[in-house]
Amino acid sequence: MKKIFIAIALSLALMLSFSACKTKHVIEWRDSVRTEIKTEIVKVPDTVLVEIPADFQSIQTYDSTSFLENKWCKTTATITSGMLTHTLETKEQAMPVPTEKEIVYKDSIVYRDRVVTKTKTEYVEKELSWYQESVLYLFWPVVCLLLFSYRKTIWKIVKVIV
Fold first, then answer.
1. Which domain holds residue 161?
2. Domain-embedded: residue 8
3. For residue 148, is pLDDT > 80?
4. Residue 79 in contact with residue 114, Cβ under 8 Å?
5. Rounded CA gap, 79 and 103, in Å?
6. Could you read off the pLDDT of 15-61 as tens digits, one per residue?
């Protein structure tokens, strides 16, 4: 009966020595990065210059009048030996053409969220009772005293188990 009591006391002491309370101070870090890309297309009226190539054109007729007209051309009419010669010559220039130009705006926004949580321990002003103080200050010395006084019996039990 004594051996069983000692074995139970020994296992109880071992279990108590490996148990502990959770820490009161906890720091938790969470860090996340999120990127948003916004794309905006804006159409802006613009003018493009189109190159008009140089051109030469000529016409001959038996009529007394000839008419050639162009916005970018120069015309000359002459009568030579009973024939009307009409010459149209274009000027080399750039022609403006209205268009719409697309402008693409890309914007990226990086959101970085960092959360730091700190747990603060607050102490309550309350005195310990006599029982709590005796357990706090006398438990381990009593356990050590019991182990020391029954060391021979504990060694015998350990030898039997092993």
1. 1-26+127-162
2. yes
3. yes
4. no
5. 56
6. 777 766 665 666 666 667 778 888 889 998 888 887 777 777 777 77
